[in-house]
Design brief:
285 residues, alpha/beta, Rossmann fold, 6-stranded mixed beta sheet
Length: 285
């Protein structure tokens, strides 16, 4: 790529000294870009590694189903877990699982091609969730809640079917914090997500290794690696979940005054002091 207005762009030849300077500049730019990409990769990998250690997310002999939707977060999670697996002192297996909800235009084939090209073990599950949602959804209600329940149920079934004792989901730091705020503002409940929890089926352990990784790191990481992001093609995609969008805007506003507000809120989730809360069921010490 050449800058507009440059001699080369105008069809003229650069003089030898200019040409040498240009190629040195271009090479240096590539080197700097490579260093930045490596630093970002290490930052995310270290964050995932710390979460695994802090919450005992992965243990010897685990067989982990990784939910891969085609979004940036699930791609990043899968690739980072695979990178760690190759160097880990313990043995564990990964199985990428994709749920095709049946929305018209959803390109599961793009996801499958990516998984195959990178040598991942995977399973593509075609469902009729879209048809079920069309039949069951009440007028004016959100697609997101019923779709999420159907997908979650399918993931639990598939994890059990393929003998996976754990299910890894791609929720990142921002998801944890936004969920905390959503529950406080709109539900009146003090809860967020757990980095590790037993699923509703009582058999599968759900893990969220990206808990320490902010979305702002995942975006350039996914883009730099060329992950083929696929839209879910839900009719409400991009306009649904306006409440979560409001939480994102609120956090962005707060970050202007306090750049560390997200990490502070995340720390609060692991620094609960029950005696200063109002729930009478909590034990006060």
């Amino acid at each position: 790529m050449f800058l507009r207005g440059s001699a080369h762009a105008q069809g003229e030849h650069l003089e030898a000294p200019q040409c040498e300077f240009f190629w040195k500049w271009k090479l240096r730019r590539r080197e700097v870009h490579a260093v930045l990409e490596e630093k970002l990769y290490m930052k995310i990998k270290n964050g995932v590694g710390r979460a695994i250690a802090d919450f005992d997310l992965i243990e010897e002999g685990d067989r982990i189903a990784v939910a891969v939707s085609g979004g940036k977060d699930s791609y990043a999670l899968l690739h980072i877990l695979e990178s760690l697996r190759k160097r880990a002192p313990i043995r564990y297996e990964l199985l990428a699982i994709n749920i095709d909800s049946g929305y018209p235009g959803y390109r599961a084939d793009i996801i499958e091609e990516h998984l195959a090209r990178h040598g991942f073990a995977y399973h593509m599950e075609k469902t009729e969730h879209y048809q079920i949602i069309q039949e069951k959804r009440r007028p004016g209600s959100s697609y997101c809640s019923i779709c999420a329940r159907l997908k979650r149920g399918a993931l639990y079934v598939l994890a059990k079917q393929f003998k996976c004792n754990k299910l890894a989901l791609g929720h990142h730091m921002d998801d944890f914090i936004e969920t905390l705020l959503l529950n406080q503002f709109f539900v009146g409940s003090l809860k967020a997500m757990a980095a590790k929890m037993l699923a509703d089926n009582g058999e599968t352990t759900v893990i969220r290794p990206l808990v320490y990784v902010p979305e702002k790191d995942i975006i350039p990481f996914a883009k730099g690696n060329g992950y083929p992001v696929v839209c879910c093609k839900c009719p409400a995609c991009g306009v649904a979940d306006l409440q979560r969008k409001k939480m994102k805007e609120l956090l962005s506003s707060l970050e202007k005054d306090n750049p560390h507000v997200k990490r502070s809120m995340l720390r609060a989730l692991s620094n609960v002091q029950p005696r200063y809360l109002l729930d009478p069921n909590l034990r006060r010490n």
